């Protein structure tokens, strides 16, 4: 079954040849240790995560009088993961971590996401939670709440949304009232309802650490409007005393996919208020949460890419095995694998472009995470590419899973095969941690507001184009890429001048054009590493995929840009009654 | 709940204003009777089909020692449908039918498909089966097997695929051995395994009539190769004597959606051979089956369009109700319905274009069915548009269901709402009755082989363009449409000259370009009926949708045509080892 996970050759190519992992590792990790991590990850993902993939879909979490119960295999897999120290992979040694570069840690984690996304999600939530605490929490808070998560004994959540406040956090109504102070800092009692809490309750870990967005309420004073008044609180399921905190599960959401991850409606403070400790100072909740959110968005993108990649592998394996028909002109004789049909190969090329392109894009961002601490350019570029990676991987990863069903024909529509579940699981990714529409507003309204990020990106693209033009094989693609980015940059300028309604009408179209432009650039950049080995199946495959992307995908950009160039604002202009 | 079904105003506009149903009805049906049929359909769909939509998804059909059992509500709904004579809607009075034009019958049936596609599918299969028998069967066969289906007492199936023969029917291995003759014609004993048989067994009707594709086996002679040797046999579950025929359920397929429709692996002839009667003469199986298949493809398209249309209605209702955030610049104050956000309106415009465009396209084909008997041009055009309608409605209906989830955000991903099920249900439609790839080969390799169909289509498009140019409001769209069809026609010529590999590499791209070109033409054609009422919410809405389609969708055609124009054959050229 591990043939469906991420090919080691793919990871090696991306990490060492394309992204220069050696440069990131410094003295921390040598090639041998990195190889050992990747070997271990592939094995554990195949042995402990993959086997309950379908079971966790069939046997949903349930709630009874004692709490929420998840499939025991999920807990067993996560305990193995914890015992091998993998929760701690990307944390520094002083926090008990392995100190792996983010790039390597993400490459390792991609295998678990590919094998079983809803089991791996507990890791994603927990490490993001612990990293936020490690960044903004007091030493006592880190010791109390972060370290047990880095050990994988406690799991974490993030509690942002409320039934009336989904994408718009300014409407958060959860309130925190001061309740003294202790060694863990200023203590509050929280009251409110939180919705869509992944991992909100379960029986998989000793404790659950909630990071809760709420507004401080002071007697006789109105809380601040909008997002400015938001603070972040650490609210454990079990208090340090061992007593149960005032956090109750009000219900479970029953999802179409991604089912192994429990998803809860939580009531904080049905009684005297849930006890929590503020992180940092009041009013810092949103920037703190965005630190976690940005990591979570890269994590969502990685999961979407991994699901897409696995879908591609399933489709390819099936197309090699399933025999049906004969290519036109082949006459009678035995039927051939469907891979012999040009239409099937065309679907697989599309899937390859999307799956490998998405994985590469996300790992490129992970590389930027490693650089961002020391390198302001990398940080700016990471901020720009985060909504791109989140959206492109989510949407085109899902598109791969759709293609994988199509390649399987009727079989792909049955639950006897994995591809239908991959498609259902992946459908969450364009929604959670900020929908595509939210990412588009982040890109057009925030990340492109000044030109710094785009300038850095275009410099890198220009470097790729220059290298392509110095060779001979890929100059046509380089020209097309150059032209495409001139148009995208013009469209960015047009939208910047278009006013808020024109911007809001076209932000998603710009995001799509931008995404394809970035992925096209990266395909060319990787293809340049392969021009000297066109006959090698792996490297030659990159050249074919790059050619395919430039022939069949890059022309789509025109359709997204044209309405922007024409000044269309139809989404803002159409009155609601005409819908 | 009936607000989510197809708006009566939509059907009235399409039937009477756009498609001139009055001209089809002749003396058979007056407006009052047609209205009564549509009223009745909407009511019965809402009262008997819609209520068990989710139940039929949750409670799957199961098999035990006595056969396959479906949810009882499905049987109850279909009995009501039969009691009202609706199985007979489109059959002539001499067969006990109502003699409704296909256009009206399809408009009626669309409500049932929207309400509950997997319950309505039994009707689709049964009427297609009965129509094939009525066309090719002997009078005795019609009386014995078609009439009980027209009454809705017996249900029908079509048994084409086998485990090793899905898209490629030339590999069918089921064999029929002569076994004498009786009043029902030449009798055979059939042996073989049939896969993907929708409605293959259940407890919903008194009997099940299988139409089975098989090859006649004569002692000492090899069966004919390929599809030429195929014949069609009528094989009932219960023989006219009342005895059980030798047809056994070997298993049920467990699907991702569309679950109320049982889907079986059937073994014919585990014992002495299943008794069946040949329809017509040996070797006529494929043309006979294609008569049924073409009707089935239009039926699939109608179901896909209806599911998409319902998804649009759900999304629109939710966007009007769900409050979240404020448009940029609106400051504080209460949150607004998400419909106020340009990005959401943009999604809904896309959904509207797709949903209404797909429904219109399929009903246009139903109109051609009515004309095709007397009018060779209509028959040729219907043949050309069948793969377009099948594919476009399937793929863009599904796209609407995807958008509907996105508009609902996290709620759309839960099973508390209908949109996730609509998406799962609709995913079957690009697969069954010929995948998108098969439709593409049908279009490029068969329907466009001579230029007759395309010439008829282009004449109709030219008429629309001429009318647009005679007015003032929509001349820009008319010019774009004209240009687009010149390019499509050129691409058809290019592919005709490209050889089988080039054709097979680009057939799907051509299908997509062709589909958008047809839908764009029809949007313009309908918009021309609305230019005098731009302020009317319904007619003005058509103008906005038309504008949107020309601004944001028609430019996509370029990306599909460009590789064809450039002579790309990458799907055929890429060697399998590079995938």
Calculate the mean pLDDT score of chain A and round it.
95
CATH topology of the largest domain in chain A: Butyryl-Coa Dehydrogenase, subunit A, domain 1
In N-to-C order, the SSE pattern of chain A is: HHHHEEHHHHEEEEEEEEHHHHHHHHHHH
Number of domains in the coordinates of chain A?
3
Q: How much helix, percentage-wise, in residues of chain A?
A: 55-70%
The helix count of chain A comes to: 19
Assembly type of the chains comes to homodimer
What low-confidence regions of chain A span 5 or more consecutive residues with pLDDT below 50?
Answer: none
What proportion of the residues of chain A form beta strands (DSSP E)?
5-15%
Shape type of chain A: globular
Give a quick account of the main beta sheet of chain A: strands, pairing sense, barrel closure. 5 strands, mixed, barrel
Q: Supply the CATH architecture of the largest domain in chain A.
A: Orthogonal Bundle
Task: Name the strands of the widest sheet of chain A in spatial order.
Answer: 4-5-10-7-6
How many β strands of chain A by DSSP? 10
InterPro entries (chains A, B): Acyl-CoA_dh-like_C_dom, Acyl-CoA_Oxase/DH_mid-dom, Acyl-CoA_Oxase/DH_mid-dom_sf, AcylCo_DH-like_C, AcylCo_DH/oxidase_C, AcylCoA_DH/ox_N, AcylCoA_DH/ox_N_sf, AcylCoA_DH/oxidase_NM_dom_sf
Domain Acyl-CoA dehydrogenase/oxidase N-terminal (chains A, B): 37-145
Keywords (chains A, B): FAD, Flavoprotein, Oxidoreductase
Pfam families (chains A, B): Acyl-CoA_dh_1, Acyl-CoA_dh_C, Acyl-CoA_dh_M, Acyl-CoA_dh_N
